[in-house]
Amino acid sequence: MGESITLGEVQETLLIPLYGRALDARKRRSMLSDTKAAELVEAIDYDFAKFRGPSLSGSAMRASIFDGYVRSFLADHPDGTVVDLGCGLSTRFQRVDNGRVRWFDLDVPDTMELRKRFFDDGERYTMITGSIHETDWFDRVRERGAPVFLLSEAVLLYFPAEQVHATLARLASSFPSAGLAFDTGGRSMMNSQDRNPVFKALPARMQWTCDEPRSLEPLGLTLLESRTFGSPQADVARSWPVRFRFGMKAVRYLVPPVAGYRINLFETAAPAS
Ligand SMILES: C[S@@+](CC[C@H](N)C(=O)[O-])C[C@H]1O[C@@H](n2cnc3c(N)ncnc32)[C@H](O)[C@@H]1O
Q1: 43 alpha carbon to ligand 1 midpoint, in Å?
Q2: For residues 155 and 66, what is the distance between their CA atoms, to the nearest angstrom?
Q3: What pLDDT is stored for residue 254 in this prediction?
């Protein structure tokens, strides 16, 4: 009998990318080689097989694009601070650790309780129980000063636009000159959720539609890069199987929900002088 779990509706969605990374790890040509995800899927008592469809490999592609953003930040700022907001059971710290980064993984109480059964804090790694929409964790992150890189993967999509905009504006004003990476979904992706096989298996639904990431700039952000599955970083693309590397370029023209899904890198505004 594996570990039993009880998670809220949005929290349960973390099991989709976990399973996607586990399936990827079992492949001959793996994008992430996330063997820990495969171990966790074995260890957790849950019907993962109910998740099907292209969103599973999409989870691994998405994670690798986010990893690319973090690696670029660490190349410029090897001693920087990275915060993964809504980390779920991600192993990003283990994947990109350069031996110097200070890393915080944050998630809400039920997810963190689950995470702490499988991960331990370390000298440069701390798990925080908290919400992306709250401010009580800000001081712990700011203690070390700049440079800071915040990322949030497949989290903001699940909240209403007004709440997301307020959260982004708060992050921008509280962490000036920081990197901020998060994903956005266009109308076509939101409207097709009920036909997506992974969402047929779960009650949670995404709520925030954003067709144009640049429209978020008035919140105190500057858009630096915006990528689809058809336009990953060149070094990230090289880690993908050929069928994804070339197939996704075509899919981006043919499948509107995929074309409208973007993984964005912003910079927050400099401090007011
Ligand atoms: C689809 S999962 C993504 C997990 C992880 N980022 C990944 O890609 O593997 C959504 C995550 O959002 C987290 N979450 C839900 N509400 C949150 C909140 N208010 N603040 C931070 N994280 C939250 C869930 O617990 C869950 O881990």
Answers
A1: 20
A2: 13
A3: 63
Residue 86 reports pLDDT greater than 80:
yes
Give the range of the structural domain holding residue 157, as residue numbers without chain letter.
62-196+208-268
Q: What CA–CA distance (Å, rounded) separates 71 from 91? A: 14
Q: Decide the pairing of beta strands 261-268 and 221-227.
A: antiparallel
Residue 263, ligand 1, Cβ within 6 A = no
Number of domains in the chain: 1
Please indicate, yes or no, if residue 67 is contained in any of the structural domains. yes
CATH classification of the domain holding 264: 3.40.50.150
| Whether the predicted pLDDT of 1 surpasses 70 | no
- What is the number of other CB atoms lying within 10 angstroms of the CB of residue 187? 13
Give the model's pLDDT for residue 130: 98
**Residue 95: closest CA among 137, 66, 131, 135:** 66
Which residue's CA is minimally distant from atom 25 of ligand 1? 11
In the chain, what is the straight-line distance between the N-terminal and C-terminal CA atoms, in Å? Answer: 58
The whole-number average pLDDT for the span 15-21 is 98
Beta carbon of 186 within 6 Å of any ligand 1 atom: no
CA of 28 to the centre of ligand 1 (A): 29
Ligand 1 closest atom vs CA 8: 25
Question: Per-residue pLDDT for 252 more than 80?
Answer: no
Specify if 111 maps to a domain: yes
Q: Ligand 1 center to residue 131 CA distance, Å?
A: 9
Residue 16 lies in a domain: no
Cα separation, 243 vs 145, in Å, equals 42
51 in a structural domain: no
pLDDT of residue 128: 98
Residue 253: pLDDT band (50, 70, 90) is: low
Q: Is the CB of 85 under 6 A from ligand 1?
A: yes
